[in-house]
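TICKET #2291
ISSUE: user wants both folds in one file
ATTACHMENT 1:
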Amino acid sequence: MLNFAPLWRYREAIRLLTLRELRVRYSNSALGVIWSLIAPLAMTIIFTIVFDVVSRNPMPAYPVFFLAGLLPWNFFSLSLTASTQSVTGNSNLVKRVYFPREILPLSIVFANGINYLVALIPLAVLMIVYGVAFTPALLWMIPILAIQIILSTGLGLALSALNALFRDVQQIVDILVLPLFFVTPIFYDVALVENQALKLALLIANPMASLVTAYRAAIYSATAPDLGLLSLTFLEALVIVGIGWVLFRKLSDAFVDEI
């Protein structure tokens, strides 16, 4: 049930579906992929203005601080909502052609990963503008990104399989995304949570909180992330992708009848 070999044999299908996802997203759009740059910049401007107004102690280079957390969150939230409906949204393909169904949510994650990499361009520009140094600590983004891909894929597998049988899952995911945004330290520093037990619980229970904190350490603070916490998040991601894979395989035989 944990045989990943079919994914390698169908790697060309993964590539094509990933490209299709990107084309569909920006079809009939005059600016196309440029929206991946404009949208996070607009959010950064809004939150920077709000933060400067309400905070008595403005944070140095706050746009860099905010964008370093917003971009991985966008990657995660878009992957979560889109992969949940990846099976039901491709019902004609599922019914007519044989292929490992796992590549549907996987291609969604990969497409959003490409968008994330593109969106790093304005972050790099802001780092230059605000004098945030490019240091070797940025290399930590590679393993952090790998962990996020594993986490997003696991959740995508589980949620897409459940949504094929129970359409309420999509509605639940849409509702939960907003509160998850606020319990993930995107526009605030997790250090502001004074209760240490609560802070630790937040970082452990919400893997994205841990990942955003790790990204921010590498980008904004130019330091290595908390390796103990990052290792724990990696283990959580492995457990989630294992559960998601097994659940998807168990439920996939019912997809044709249910969709």
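ATTACHMENT 2:
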Amino acid sequence: MGGIIIKTKEQIDGIRESCHLAARTLDFAAQFVQAGVDTEFIDNKIEEFILENHAIPATKGYNGFPKSSCISPNEIVCHGIPSPNMVLKDGDILNIDVTTILNGYYGDTSRMYTVGEITPLADQLIRVAQHCLHLGIRQVKPDNYFGNIGFVIGRYANANRFSVVYEFCGHGVGLDFHEEPQVDHTSRRNRGHKMKPGMIFTIEPMINEGRATTSIDRMDGWTARTIDRKLSAQFEHTVLVTQTGCEVLTDIHQEFPVT
């Protein structure tokens, strides 16, 4: 698919429904995030929930990815492969990322979870990562530049002495898993394409405790870790540009008003 797709009302309605299911899946997964539970068990529960709701997990089989979700604890930035050997313990932080395909439409979202009591630094990192997403969402409105999303995220993260991962980005979504445009989470002001009503894309900043760079696990070809093995945190929403602002399609708790 070439260029940025402007979705029709019918497509938007279908994507919204899939996004709601993806968000409900994250709510469902929360009950299993406990010390002593392995991440493959959580992934199995996620797959069951998605299938029971007449959808399929987009990640399973995608370019060879073997599981139904990405589960990324601690220093894993993204694309963590659920495993029976990855057992959660007190003090862990983790991101769970799910993408559902419902009636042919894609919904993509992720959030952070904590196990037991976490360190003050980990708590601050999570709060900053969440606020970075909120700042990015506030930039979503017609005729604004995509670069302004990354500009406000980078400015806030750096002001809090954290770094922004630049090797992974947000993306268009809805009719396919990954569409145009690329949504960078660190950028110069007023750069890139302008947003237009009907565009749908993810904002998913990955914020690191230490250095911004990552390394990919040679054994599985997927798992991305911080280069210095310090903590990373990420939140993700799928957003729609409306005629006057935006709608956060994966927001099922009315956290963001439709503008």
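RESOLUTION: both attachments delivered.
EXTRA DETAIL ON ATTACHMENT 2: Residues 172 and 180 are 5 Å apart (CA to CA).
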